[in-house]
Specification:
The chain is mainly α. It has one domain: Vanadium-containing Chloroperoxidase, domain 2. It is built from six helices and two strands, in the order H-H-H-H-H-H-E-E. The chain has helices at about 1-10, 15-40, 45-75, 100-115, 120-135, 140-180, and strands at about 190, 195. The chain has a two-stranded antiparallel ribbon with strand order 1-2. The longest helix has about 40 residues, at about 140-180.
Length: about 200
C-alpha cells in the first residue's frame, strides 16, 4: 500500500504534490489557530473556557504517548534510500507511530468535542493530514493508523474523565472570585478637597 501511494504521489500533478507537502505541516498550524479561536470564543464562560483548554491538553498528552512509543518500538522510516516528496528525517527520528497523525487526531477530536459545529470540518481534516504523511513518503500506513487511533482515544479519554472536574474547578474559582470583598471608594468632599465622608453643609 505504501508503494502504491508513493507511486501515485510521484505521478500526480505538480500542484497536487505541492499541496500535499504544504498541508502535511500547515494543517497542524490550522488546528492550532482553531484552538486559539475556540479559547477566545469561550472566554466569557468559565465552564466553556475550561473545556476549551482541554483541547491543547489532550493534544500534548497524546504527543507524549506517541513519542514514548517511538522511543520503545524504534521502527525506521520507510523513506530511507527512497525518493520522496519531503526530505527524510535523520536516523533516530523513528516512524511508529506517526506524531503528525497523533497530534492531528487528538486536536481534531478535541476541537469537535469542545465545539461540535467544527466536527464536519476538523475530523476529515485530521484524516487527510494523516494520509498526507504517507503521500509525501514520511510514514507507512500503519504508522498513520496507529497515530490516528492514539490521538483520538487520548482526546476522548481526556474529555471523558477531565471535562467535569475541569468545569467544576473553573466554576468554583469564579465563585470565590465573585465572593471576594471589595473596599468602597472613599468619598471626597469637593468643597475642601479632603478625603472622608461627605458632610452636609453647615448652616
Amino acid at each position: 500500500m505504501y508503494d502504491d501511494i508513493v507511486e501515485l504521489a510521484g505521478e500526480s500533478p505538480g500542484w497536487l504534490q505541492a499541496s500535499g507537502v504544504l498541508f502535511t505541516d500547515a494543517g497542524l498550524l490550522i488546528f492550532a489557530a482553531l484552538m486559539v479561536w475556540v479559547f477566545w470564543r469561550a472566554r466569557t464562560s468559565p465552564s466553556r473556557l475550561a473545556v476549551s483548554l482541554l483541547v491543547p491538553a489532550a493534544t500534548a498528552i497524546a504527543y507524549l504517548i506517541s513519542e514514548a512509543a517511538k522511543s520503545v518500538i524504534r521502527e525506521d522510516r520507510p523513506c530511507r534510500g527512497l525518493v520522496t516528496l519531503v526530505e527524510c528525517p535523520p536516523t533516530g527520528d523513528w516512524s511508529f507511530p506517526s506524531n503528525h497523525s497523533t497530534i492531528a487526531a487528538a486536536a481534531a477530536v478535541g476541537l469537535a468535542l469542545a465545539w461540535r459545529r467544527l466536527a464536519p470540518w476538523v475530523l476529515p481534516g485530521g484524516l487527510l493530514m494523516g494520509f498526507s504523511r504517507v503521500f509525501v513518503g514520511a510514514h507507512y500506513p500503519h504508522d498513520v493508523l496507529a497515530g490516528l487511533v492514539c490521538g483520538s482515544v487520548t482526546a476522548w479519554l481526556v474529555f471523558r474523565y477531565l471535562k467535569d472536574p475541569a468545569t467544576r474547578i473553573a466554576r468554583r474559582l469564579t465563585a470565590h472570585a465573585g465572593d471576594a470583598p471589595t473596599q468602597p471608594m472613599p468619598k471626597v468632599d469637593l468643597r475642601s478637597g479632603s478625603k472622608g465622608p461627605l458632610l452636609p453643609p453647615r448652616r
